[in-house]
């Protein structure tokens, strides 16, 4: 992709191509889960990093699979990518993994794309789709292996069904796709886990914040992010009220 391309179009293109590369590696190589995880991370990261340096060389860059460069802290525009979000799910040849390409401007998750390659879907901040209405019984998407205590407690308070799922990107996008209604995580993540999903969710009119309601801030020296909340606007008050009693 060359020429005068918008940030959102670039993010979507890179996420889609990286996803296609990952599917090719997964489907063509007889690798163990451990080897597939390593190969997928390396190949997708190399592609995304090289492409962003070529297309947006003046911007900062933060990738889960790349050594962090403190120069990004002096940049207003910083690309934050997760080449394979849900490496475990990818290696297990499941569908709930994603590719994240996000852009934070002055700490705000402004632009992004999340590819769900196994589903053939790329959700992007410049092309929002209608979010289906919530069902009568809400669904809270949680970690497959370690559902957060706060999420379980809020689900009980709201009478919500727990929906186990893999990657953070898949969880966040499941709300847009009408597969869930609330994504509350308090077990700790990193900036690359949520930057692109947060940008895409915001563009679709969803609420995105920390679990105390304060904004998510990106391009920090410490990339650890303790918690997040993504949901429809009408569910914010009930969720925060339930959290206050946890």
Automatic annotation (TrEMBL):
<keyword id="KW-0460">Magnesium</keyword>
<dbReference type="GO" id="GO:0046872">
    <property type="term" value="F:metal ion binding"/>
</dbReference>
<feature type="binding site">
    <location>
        <position position="193"/>
    </location>
    <ligand>
        <name>Mg(2+)</name>
    </ligand>
</feature>
<protein>
    <submittedName>
        <fullName>3'(2'), 5'-bisphosphate nucleotidase</fullName>
        <ecNumber>3.1.3.7</ecNumber>
    </submittedName>
</protein>
<keyword id="KW-0479">Metal-binding</keyword>
<dbReference type="Pfam" id="PF00459">
    <property type="entry name" value="Inositol_P"/>
</dbReference>
<dbReference type="GO" id="GO:0000103">
    <property type="term" value="P:sulfate assimilation"/>
</dbReference>
<feature type="binding site">
    <location>
        <position position="64"/>
    </location>
    <ligand>
        <name>Mg(2+)</name>
    </ligand>
</feature>
<feature type="binding site">
    <location>
        <position position="82"/>
    </location>
    <ligand>
        <name>Mg(2+)</name>
    </ligand>
</feature>
<keyword id="KW-0378">Hydrolase</keyword>
<dbReference type="InterPro" id="IPR000760">
    <property type="entry name" value="Inositol_monophosphatase-like"/>
</dbReference>
<dbReference type="InterPro" id="IPR050725">
    <property type="entry name" value="CysQ/Inositol_MonoPase"/>
</dbReference>
<dbReference type="GO" id="GO:0050427">
    <property type="term" value="P:3'-phosphoadenosine 5'-phosphosulfate metabolic process"/>
</dbReference>
<dbReference type="GO" id="GO:0008441">
    <property type="term" value="F:3'(2'),5'-bisphosphate nucleotidase activity"/>
</dbReference>
<feature type="binding site">
    <location>
        <position position="85"/>
    </location>
    <ligand>
        <name>Mg(2+)</name>
    </ligand>
</feature>
């Amino acid at each position: 992709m060359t020429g005068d391309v918008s940030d959102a179009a670039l993010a979507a293109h890179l996420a889609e191509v990286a996803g296609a590369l990952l599917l090719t590696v997964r489907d063509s190589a007889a690798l163990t889960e451990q080897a597939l995880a390593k190969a997928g991370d390396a190949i997708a990261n190399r592609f995304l990093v090289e492409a962003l340096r070529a297309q947006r060389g003046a911007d900062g860059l933060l990738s889960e699979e790349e050594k962090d460069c403190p120069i990004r802290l002096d940049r207003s525009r910083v690309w934050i990518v997760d080449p394979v979000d849900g490496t475990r799910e990818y290696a297990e040849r499941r569908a709930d993994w994603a590719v994240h390409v996000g852009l934070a401007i002055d700490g705000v998750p402004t632009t992004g794309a999340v590819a769900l390659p196994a589903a053939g879907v790329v959700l992007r901040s410049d092309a929002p789709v209608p979010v289906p209405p919530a069902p009568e019984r809400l669904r809270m998407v949680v970690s497959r292996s370690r559902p957060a205590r706060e999420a379980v407690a809020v689900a009980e308070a709201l009478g919500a069904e727990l929906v186990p799922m893999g990657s953070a990107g898949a969880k966040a996008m499941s709300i847009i796709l009408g597969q869930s209604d609330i994504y509350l995580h308090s077990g700790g993540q990193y900036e690359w886990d949520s930057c692109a999903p947060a940008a895409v969710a915001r563009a679709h009119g969803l609420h995105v914040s920390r679990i105390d309601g304060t904004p998510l801030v990106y391009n920090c020296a410490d990339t650890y992010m303790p918690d997040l909340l993504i949901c429809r606007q009408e569910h914010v008050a009930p969720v925060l009220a339930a959290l206050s009693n946890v």
